[in-house]
Design goal:
Distance between the termini: 20 Å
Number of helices: 8
Strand content: under 5%
Largest sheet: none
Helix content: over 70%
Order of helices and strands: HHHHHHHH
Structural class: mainly alpha
Bound molecules: zinc ion
Radius of gyration: 16 Å
Number of strands: 0
Shape: globular
Number of domains: 1
């Protein structure tokens, strides 16, 4: 059940991200670099780690991969708060409805960590890293959005704790999934990672032309195969 610990540690980064604008002066931090890095990590984790591992477990991965991608698209366009710059948040005043989207996405993160870990412990560790890295800016932005929407600190923190707790719940549930579905599940969650990385985080990171963002994305993309090498998956 180590994967529950991984899920907890990875998910707590959204709470840490959320605490920054509340308890520090980091309200106007340039999040572009972190968002770019997270995009690189997520996309790379899906392409270099989750899909190949899914393919080893099953030859039926393309359809679940596509389902994962479009499911996240539907979740995001209907209810989700996503990582954003604090200046352009008209779509983000949906409050608790937005938290449902975030909660669902967090749950999928937990499922990916657990399924990855049970398949191979190093795989779970890499996926947990990808979750931790992208949840940090998500928590940061969610916190800013909620405070701007007149939620107080307490409610903001409760919301962040609840959504990050759902990552652990997702991991717990995934422990009961039959192993023959692990290939398609890895592919499905890889589809959600690609969606968040490529269509959410990447455009956010590139709001302005900035070569350091490009370097951040590439660093994120490169670190995943490096981790794979070091961990020997
Ligand atoms: Zn997430």
């Amino acid at each position: 059940m180590i994967y529950l610990v991984y899920a907890f540690i990875a998910s707590i980064s959204s709470v840490i991200g959320g605490l920054l604008p509340i308890y520090t002066r980091l309200k106007h931090i340039r999040t572009n670099y972190l968002i770019g890095f997270a995009a690189g990590v997520l996309i790379s984790t899906a392409l270099f780690v989750m899909l190949p591992e899914g393919l080893l477990a099953s030859d039926q991965i393309l359809t679940p991969f596509a389902f994962g991608f479009f499911s996240l698209y539907l979740i995001e366009k209907s209810v989700m708060i996503h990582a954003c710059k604090e200046t352009e948040c008209d779509v983000h005043t949906k409050g608790w409805v937005g938290m449902i989207g975030l909660g669902l996405e967090s749950m999928l993160d937990g499922i990916a960590i657990a399924v990855g870990y049970i398949t191979e412990p190093a795989l779970g560790l890499i996926i947990a890293f990808a979750v931790a890295v992208h949840e940090l800016p998500v928590g940061f932005c969610t916190s800013i959005i909620m405070i701007r929407s007149n939620y107080d600190r307490k409610n903001t923190l409760i919301a962040l704790f609840l959504t990050s707790f759902l990552t652990v719940v997702g991991a717990l549930i995934a422990g009961f999934f039959p192993q023959e579905y692990f290939g398609p599940i890895l592919a499905f969650t890889a589809g959600t990672f690609i969606y968040i990385g490529a269509s959410d985080l990447l455009p956010q990171a590139h709001e302005r032309v900035d070569w350091i963002v490009v370097v951040s994305v590439i660093c994120g993309a490169v670190i995943v195969p490096l981790m794979e090498r070091i961990l020997g998956t």
